[in-house]
Amino acid sequence: MSALLEVRGVSKEFPVGGVLSGKTIKAVNETSFTIGENGPEIFTIIGESGSGKTTLARMILGLEHPSAGEISFEGKPVTHASGQERLAFMAKVQPVFQNPFEAFNPLKRVDRYLASTAKRFLKLRGKVEIDAAMDGALQKVGLSLTEVRGRFPHELSGGQLQRVAIARALIPNPPLLIADEPVSMVDASLRMAIVNLLRQLRDEMGVSVIYITHDLATAYYISDRLIIMQRGNVVEMGPARAVLDAPEHPYSRLLKASVLSDADAGHGRLQPAADLLLLSDRTIGQMGRLVDRPDGRKVLQYG
Amino acid sequence: MADILTVERLKAYYLMNYYGVQREVRAVDDITMSIGKNEVYGIAGESSSGKTSFIKVLAAAIRPPLRVVEGSATYHFKTGDVDVAHATPEQVEEIRWRSLSYIMQGSMSVLNPLRKVGRIFEDFAARPLGLSGSAFRQRVIGHLDRLKLDPRVLNSYPHELSGGMRQRVTIGLATVCNPEFVIADEPTTALDVVVQKDVLGLIKDLQKQQGSSIVFVTHDMAVHANIADRVGIIYAGRLVEEAPTRTLFTAPRHPYTAHLVASLPRIGDTTQRPALDGRPPNLANPPSGCRFHPRCPLVIDKCKTDVPPLELVGPGQRSACWRWRDVEPLVKPAAALEAAL
């Protein structure tokens, strides 16, 4: 099976300072990976703020152009010449954003978004057909059109709204969803509902998901493969369980050491991993290359 | 252990009257609890559960339409007892920052972007401390040192600092007057994992050094597991369970708590986690009886009509559930926890 999405040596530089300063900052540095070679999967991009994970997602969506390298979806580059091609691409790669309360206009009814997506990508015109498409997508996320019709965003809870956002993305039946921190704004009790939903989409509907997060625990829970990014560089990538069970790169180890667990509830151990912090700080800005490991992962090595 | 805060039968409602239509939102409904000296008390609950309204009362920031309908929230400070639910503005002014302080959530919106950090410290703390000039500066620098911040931050604007440093500055502002009681409202929610752990450690260290008590509010149970001594769970304006942290995580006695604990994913564990269906109730029109009953897996007829009292179910553990004896943890406790049992 050929890859759904292929990212080859992609970099993105942003100018910093004045126009004439000539300085740039590398948000993403020569990143390569493929998604969906072996069927639908959940591919996780882990990183802190400033690691370039959102820039990478924006480039995959075609909202930013890479400074170098190439991204192709189903064999075609995502930077499109014509509007027609762009529209066809958008129907196949759909985003879900971080904060559902900001993703919806508070003055518009939420079903309007669903309807306009159905009109635009499925080219539906009849009311009955549009309703059927909306209801179908809402059923997939455990809601129904009767629950949602005519509601304003404030009338729905955060978890419901995020599910409506996912339903909207599912209307054109895309093979790939890009979910940028879909649970970080959702309450803990509803977080699992969203995460389980992503899992269900992969297993039952064959949708691949790029799951962008800084939460290692949910990443471990749902993802098949992942990459860990530090300041624009991929420092470790590979099968999710293997990497997170025993991370190798100092930065990955630091991230894992910083995860708060309930394992010693009540005996809070909050000492920062100072040695790892120092080690991972040293790696910033160093040149390295990804080296293959026998368990299928790749680790950035220096010198 | 002596208590620093005693809350008794506190009811705080939003009373609104628009165009003759009266609405009543029971955001805090009959909460009774106390917090000991030197204790970190965690409050967990989802958004719109009333935890912020409860915190507003505790912080003596009761503004209409929020009104205290019944009950009291009394602090036992060294300077004397103050019931913040019925305190006069002068009384509140007297304790604010000196005895009772507040760490706020968004560090970017707390710090005035147009003033340097040093000036912000003056705005906040010069008057309560009663110091000025170099004495004040020395005090602030000494405090920044405890927060592992360089005195140079005083000459920086907030945007020049990283998110973690800004959050430390906010913590510094809240603790520079050595308050006896600190309210921390989601202080680490917007931070990255590495910084979050660091900031939590800092809050805990500072609490130990200053011997203060903290009310720590967040919906993230993993944070509670690591920082709180006791945790109280708020659901739809009511305290539904309260227990020492370890007990709460190993033997919850309320179905909602059991669910919250179970919904924590762990590294090294991929078993399917249950998700809670339904949505938090509308506080303007809450369900009858136990407010959790429409979402509860253990619901019986009694739950729909009678409100369960918050009763003692174990050492230091209180639960408001008719069927607390039947509540089982939904997932196996983590291996480390199990070994200790």
Low-confidence stretches of chain A: none
| The CATH class of chain A | Alpha Beta
> Going across the major beta sheet of chain B, what is the strand order?
6-7-8-3-9-10-12-11
Number of helices of chain B: 12
Shape of chain B: globular
The strand line-up of the biggest sheet of chain A is 6-7-8-3-9-10-12-11
Put simply, the count of helices of chain A is: 12
Distance between the termini of chain A: 36 Å
Overall description:
The complex is a heterodimer of chains A (303) and B (341). In chain A, α4 (110-122) packs parallel to α7 (158-170), α7 (158-170) runs parallel beside α8 and α11 (250-258) runs antiparallel to α12 (274-283). Helices cover 38% and strands 25% of the residues of chain A. The mean pLDDT of chain A is 87. With 303 residues, chain A is α/β, with parallel strands linked by helices. Chain A has a single domain, classed as Rossmann fold, CATH 3.40.50. Chain A contains twelve helices and twelve strands. In chain A, a hairpin with a 2-residue loop joins β4 (68-73) and β5. With 341 residues, chain B is of the alpha/beta class. Chain B has two domains: 3-228, P-loop containing nucleotide triphosphate hydrolases (Rossmann fold); 234-340, no CATH class. Chain B has helices spanning 51-58, 89-95, 107-110, 117-129, 133-146, 163-175, 193-210, 221-227, 245-250, 255-262, 301-305, 335-340; strands at 3-18, 21-36, 40-44, 66-77, 80-83, 100-103, 181-185, 213-217, 230-235, 238-244, 311-314, 317-319. In chain B, strands 6-7-8-3-9-10-12-11 form an eight-stranded mixed β-sheet, with helices on both faces. Chain B has a four-stranded antiparallel β-sheet with strand order 2-1-4-5, with helices on one face. Chain B is globular and about 65 Å long. The chains are: A alpha/beta (303), B alpha/beta (341). The interface between A and B is large, with 44 and 54 residues.
